[in-house]
Amino acid sequence: MRPVTWDGSFFWEDPNLRWGDPSFQLEPGDPGYVPWPPPKTKHRNKNTMKHESYLPREDAGISTLLMTLNNGLTNAMATKYNLTAEQRWRLKQAGLAFDHLLAVSTILADARQGFTALREGMFLGGEGSTPIPIGPTLPAVPTIEPLVAGAPVPVEVEAEFFDFLGRVVAQIKQAENYDPADGETLGIIGPEVPPPSSDIKPQPKVKIGPSGKPVVTCKKSPFQGYQVEVARGTGTFADAGFATAREYEIPLPLPPAGQTETWKIRVQYRLQNALFGQLSDALEIDVRGR
Fold this sequence. Notes:
Layout: E1 2-3, E2 17-18, E3 24-25, H1 59-72, H2 75-80, H3 85-121, E4 143-144, E5 153-154, H4 161-173, H5 180-186, E6 205-208, E7 214-217, E8 225-232, E9 238-243, E10 247-249, E11 260-271, E12 274-276, E13 283-288
Antiparallel strand pairs: 1-3, 2-3, 4-5, 6-7, 7-10, 8-9, 8-11, 11-12, 11-13
């Protein structure tokens, strides 16, 4: 037991405090002792792998995403993530509008190709003539039931819809009760980013910077950075620092004024605080003292 004093750095909420005359604090080994402070709760790692963006680059993939999202957003799922009726309606309208625009764009592209071929045919040899076809028939604009009661209305194209979509996705993924399995169901988890290969070899470039010192440029992501080694003149390679940005000015002193020295430079990536992959090929550059 430990006596309690006013200047003893005690906490009122400590369950081991016993107030009285005298007051005391239970210590490890005492009957009734409760570990204090309570251990911090570790949040489960919801996503152990890095993923690419959930939003595909190609139109067909976006169409699939919107369809998957709308189909997966059941009433129970929407309630779980506090999505409003308006949010769901906007998602549904966007899916219908995007699919319609994609279909129309494909039809018009095919028609344009045919009309262009006919126009170019006027410059070529041959006999006879070809009737000009009638333009393509476009599908009707889809309709959607309005938020309030009423007859279905034609869908419209919402400006900056994908900003809105990003906010909806963030609302779901940042919820305390978010389950990655729901993300898979809704299609809002991008493909996993494969781990880098241990055979990777950096491809740096080097130039003389404004200070007269060599500046190395090397792609950094997804690594912490790259280690730089330099051999000056006929010397051996030695550590010249760790670059955490794409560009890195080598912080070594220049040769004496007026003298030129050939520096060999090579780099190697670092991942999880350890060297990773292969050393790059050595680059040579002449460095002149100022």
